[in-house]
Specification:
CATH architecture: 3-Layer(aba) Sandwich
Helix content: 25-40%
Order of helices and strands: EEEHEEHEHHHEHEHEEHH
CATH superfamily: P-loop containing nucleotide triphosphate hydrolases
Distance between the termini: 50 Å
Number of helices: 9
Structural class: alpha/beta
Strand content: 15-25%
CATH class: Alpha Beta
Number of domains: 1
Largest sheet: 6 strands, mixed
Strand order of the largest sheet: 6-7-8-3-9-10
Number of strands: 10
Length: 251
């Protein structure tokens, strides 16, 4: 009989974060994310969502607690952050593509410079990834020649080029015009269907309902409530969440 015990890829234990100005961004947040799970994090502006996401790959330091990714402590003094960031891909609100490089060159850069992989191998995989996000014909275009949605899809391909086991998305559609949101969400939906472990900070409630295995609500730096999408959206057992959903879903 095979052991089907879930494999935990991310574990945060009682994580707090206080900024230098005294703002308490995170208050005793604990969570786990299993391999293949899609976790969507929602909440009002300033609730700590993006800060939490950025602590998972040590872009943000923590004040208390511990975070383990693939069994390794992220915030310990001896943490290998280069190794961590090859395992955890991140996609930001802004696309952060190098403007002087083509889409293909942007996707190839990190595997060449960080992983020191052979150029022919990296190029072939980068071409495959651009095709995967629907941009094979834009491989030799520069970012200025691409729409916002296309640039964000290049950014997703760039993160995937490092062959991460986890993908973090920080409001990946918030800087896009409404007609471009769907093309980015469709790429993310396909990744979820392929079993990619994903943590997604998003305002797209329909996407969270359709794709997430679990939805987490944050407010004032606290993890207030979490549940499977149907129960989370249709029968939330938390007053703060009911108020929040009432505000965002009526629009």
């Amino acid at each position: 009989m095979t052991d089907r015990k879930p494999q935990i890829l991310i574990e945060a234990r009682a994580v707090s974060k206080q900024f230098a100005n005294g703002t308490q961004a995170l208050k005793q947040v604990s969570l786990t994310v299993e391999r293949g799970e899609v976790l969507c994090i929602i909440g009002p502006s300033g609730s700590g969502k993006s800060t939490l996401l950025r602590t998972l790959n040590a872009l943000e330091e923590i004040s208390e607690g511990d975070i383990q990714v693939n069994g390794h402590s992220v915030h310990s003094s001896g943490a290998d952050l280069n190794r961590l960031r090859t395992q955890v891909g991140m996609v930001f609100q802004q696309f952060n593509l190098f403007p002087h490089m083509t889409a293909l060159e942007n996707v190839m850069l990190a595997p060449l410079k960080v992983l020191k992989q052979p150029e022919a191998e990296v190029r072939a995989r980068a071409e495959q990834l651009l095709a995967k996000v629907g941009l094979a014909e834009k491989a030799h275009s520069h970012p200025a020649q691409l729409s916002g949605g296309q640039q964000q899809r290049v950014a997703i391909a760039r993160a995937l080029a490092m062959q991460p086991s986890i993908m973090l998305f920080d409001e990946p559609t918030s800087a896009l015009d409404p007609e471009m949101v769907g093309e980015v969400l469709e790429v993310m939906r396909a990744l979820a269907q392929e079993g990619m472990t994903m943590c997604i900070v998003t305002h797209e409630m329909g996407f969270a309902r359709a794709v997430a295995h679990r939805v987490l609500f944050m407010d004032h730096g606290e993890m207030v409530y979490q549940d499977a999408p149907a129960a989370f959206f249709d029968a939330p057992r938390n007053e703060r969440l009911r108020t929040f959903l009432g505000q965002v879903l009526k629009n």
